[in-house]
Design goal:
alpha/beta, Rossmann fold, Alpha-Beta Plaits, 4 domains, six-stranded parallel sheet, 16 helices, 24 strands, 32% helix, globular
């Protein structure tokens, strides 16, 4: 596939990095220094220029393009890029936007702006926050097979019930599979004798109920589920997160310092208690019993403030903190100092866009550990090396770093075991080491 990426910021760079080994990628940006840097760091063609200009797109190979991704930080620029592409190309266009109103306009008029698919960064981020917040101890959560299968990654606390046990000792779930263990910079495909150590990140795949049960048991905290939610910051991400919790029957609290914005949010969120205050005021947090929250979500428009709010919440005794970070380089810092989950909107956007480059192979993907591995949903074709074979035999033809986590068959969940026979038409949810991803696509 010939792919043109307009915008070489964090999203564009992440997309290009993910695609450079398997596709012909051209990246366009106005910043000459950044273009020069990319020329030497990535196996892509980097061009300095304005992606809204037809001549620049022609130079980038628009006539050959299968896919054009507009990923600058300017919503209007991204829409114009797609409109320009449409004037003389049939390439599939993807625009990244932050404003929900643009997404709603596009949804109301299919093909508006010349955009074939639009990704709303803030909405995607809110959806990720909602998924993760519902599972204690989870650092990443995704649904597959139309909600039949859940994938989750958990960090193991020293006091956790599974800490110090092997996978075979911990594996007491009929409809869940242990997929992998991440330890520092190492990754281990889960085997029966793989030991689960404190601070490991464990990836499991299975039915939503089984994963939820595992979440309850793996967490060292005594809790009765996520009921009390506090959202700090009335940004678009904060608003969208509150709206999602409302839609699922929760009554969150939201703290916003700006009076006008707080009033606007109170009108838009009938089942959310909106409080006008500075969330870094410790006396206010104590007075409003924020310490009783099951989760505090920091969604301010400053990484530094989100870190401060998270640390203050931890100090007050909040069980769990989730923070939005704009600078991906801060992710490890946030989690090192005690923030449970750090979510980067640009990384969420890149993951959603990359899914479209896998349309011939997968129905959904989830990237783990900054793309160290992926969980993919794939339909088994009649020519697949897996079709008609028991898993124990078929796995011999697959490279190391692959785990079949779940099977969806005719709308039913099948938990894979060694003697399970895979059929053509089955939908598999598979954990794959990114290093062997292309090989796996060719075989499956």
């Amino acid at each position: 596939m010939y792919v043109i990426v307009v915008g070489a910021g964090e999203v564009g760079r992440s997309i290009a990095t993910n695609l450079e080994d398997s596709h012909e990628v051209v990246i366009v940006d106005r910043d000459g220094d950044l273009v020069e840097e990319l020329t030497y760091t990535l196996d892509v063609l980097a061009i300095e220029g304005d992606g809204t200009e037809l001549e620049t797109l022609r130079e980038a190979g628009l006539g050959r393009a299968d896919l054009v991704i507009a990923s600058t930080d300017d919503d209007e620029v991204n829409a114009v890029v797609c409109g320009t592409v449409e004037t003389e190309s049939e390439a599939f266009t993807i625009a990244r936007v932050r404003r929900r109103t643009l997404l709603e306009t596009w949804q109301g008029s299919q093909g508006a702006f010349g955009v074939d698919f639009m990704v709303c960064t803030d909405l995607l981020t809110a959806q990720t926050i909602f998924r993760i917040s519902g599972l204690p101890g989870a650092t990443d959560v995704n649904m597959f097979a139309g909600g039949l299968v859940r994938m989750a990654e958990f960090e193991i606390d020293p006091d956790s019930a599974v800490a110090g046990r092997t996978v075979s000792e911990a594996d007491c779930y009929d409809s869940m599979t242990f997929a992998a263990v991440f330890r520092d910079d190492e990754m281990f495909v889960a085997q029966g004798d793989t030991e689960i150590c404190p601070s490991d990140r464990v990836v499991v795949i299975g039915s939503p109920d089984s994963v939820a049960t595992f979440a309850d048991e793996v967490s060292a905290d005594d809790h009765d589920g996520t009921e009390e939610i506090v959202i700090v910051g009335g940004s678009e991400i904060g608003y969208q997160t509150a709206r999602l919790f409302e839609e699922h029957g929760f009554r969150p609290r939201l703290i916003e310092q700006d009076r006008d914005r707080a009033r606007e949010l109170a009108e838009a969120l009938p089942n959310t208690l909106v409080m006008e205050s500075d969330a870094t005021d410790v006396d206010f947090l104590a007075r409003e019993h924020v310490d009783e929250a099951d989760v505090v979500i920091a969604a301010l428009e400053s990484d530094e403030k989100n870190l401060l709010v998270s640390l203050l919440s931890r100090r007050l005794g909040v069980d769990r903190t989730v923070a939005v970070i704009e600078n991906l380089e801060f992710a490890d810092l946030f989690e090192t100092v005690g923030v449970d989950v750090a979510i980067n909107p640009r990384e969420e956007t890149a993951e959603e866009i990359v899914r479209f480059t896998r349309a011939d192979y997968t129905e959904k993907i989830a990237m783990l550990e900054h793309d160290r591995a992926e969980v993919i949903e794939i339909e088994v074709g009649p020519n697949s090396v897996l079709a008609g074979r028991e898993i124990v035999d078929a796995m011999a033809d697959l490279p190391d770093g692959v785990v079949i986590g779940a099977i969806s068959r005719g709308g039913d969940l099948v938990t894979p075991r060694g003697t399970t026979t895979i059929r053509s038409g089955d939908h598999l949810v598979v954990f794959v080491d990114s290093a062997v991803l292309e090989e796996v696509f060719e075989l499956i």
